[in-house]
Fold this sequence. Notes:
About 45% of the residues lie in helices and about 15% in strands. By secondary structure, it is α/β, with parallel strands linked by helices. α7 (about 280-290) links the parallel β4 (about 270) and β5. The chain folds into two domains: about 1-180, no CATH class; about 185-435, Purple Acid Phosphatase, chain A, domain 2, CATH 3.60.21. The protein is elongated and about 80 Å long. α1 (about 1-45) packs across α3 and α3 (about 85-120) runs antiparallel to α4 (about 135-180).
Amino acid sequence: xxxxxxxVYFVIMNWVFYLVVSxxxxxxxxxxxxLYRRWRKRLSPYRWWPLVSKIWFSLFIITQLPLxxxxxxxxxxxxxxxxxxxxxxxxxxxxxxxxxxxAFPIWLVATGILSLISWxxxxxxxxxxxxxxxxxxxxxxxxxSRSQFLKNTLGASMIMADALxxxxxxxxxxxxxxxxxxxxxxxxxxxxxxxxxxxxxLKIMQISDLHIGNLINEQYxxxxxxxxxxxxxxxxxxxxxxxxxxxxFIPTAAxxxxxxxxxxxxxxxxxxxxxxxxxxxxxxxxxxHTRGINLLRxxxxxxxxxxxxxxxxxxxxxxxxxxxxxxxxxxxxxFFDSLQPKIDPELPTIVMNHHPSDFEYLKKEAVxxxxxxxxxxxxxxxSQNRDSVLALAGNFYRYFIDMYEENGRSLYVNRGFGxxxxxxxxxPPEITVITLT
Length: 437
């Protein structure tokens, strides 16, 4: 009976996957056809339009064909590796589809509003003009200029709306070649009452959300590693999403951590995030564990420094409950309850937990500091005030960036070391160094 239910589950999940991909492909193709026809109407009189048309058609083919192929070969087999010389292709494919899919709802709303304004203004009755000929001519001239101004404004707005996905493609493609370069090191202090004197000044480095994969390559990691070594921290913590979505990149992750082992005298410890579970979380753990990094999966260890000691605990990410926040948090709490017997209540306790929302229950526990990631700080922050609506992630997460202090407990949410979409505004990739006092 269990085998039958498992078979039915996988059949249903496969059909859901195929349905979602089919809908995405339909939206993308329809949107691109509509925009192509709109641009052709505007630009066809120009002699360079045939060249632009060929470029558009080429991009359309090379970006939509892989999506259609996914319906045949399946999601787990769709991996384009750098070693195959297809990096440029992957960049174009990703930037184009992300940009068009992301721009579609904005474009739909914008063009709807502009079309409504145009329709309403076209229905306005002409004003009654004075009987005098000169006044009548002047009024007609003024009305014509106002009408023409409105028409020009609406036309320019339509062009801007139609250019939105192309602008997104340009910025995204540039971001992929430049990477999220320009790492920022954020230094923070955490005061722990009664901290053993040998632990005072202990420097804990945190990185999170590396997303090692097609967009985070060896050069990106090498640049970051040099900066990390220069900070001379005692301990490195890695709070999940080490790989992006495929276990193919485990060797790249292992090489990165093995190259850092000698730089952190107290060790390198990490946990799994939701992305680490996408391909096969058990295989990820079994393969990467102890290859330069000690992965804590609902476990706790004691980290010594001189005569001082502290608890370092790591929670696994509940899967496949990632889409149901209440159930996911309850499962996470069960994970924490299961490892509590391994925690020495007499020592300071630091918990690595990928999802920052779990601070809702962790702040009620005997925990001094929680280290999280997951949000990437939203990757777009148009205001450095995290309470502003312009700090976009704050509209979706209560805890999404930097340090929080509640109920005598502390949470630090890392902005993310890598990315799953290579564009950041006001939210650089982060390396955090927290000094205990």
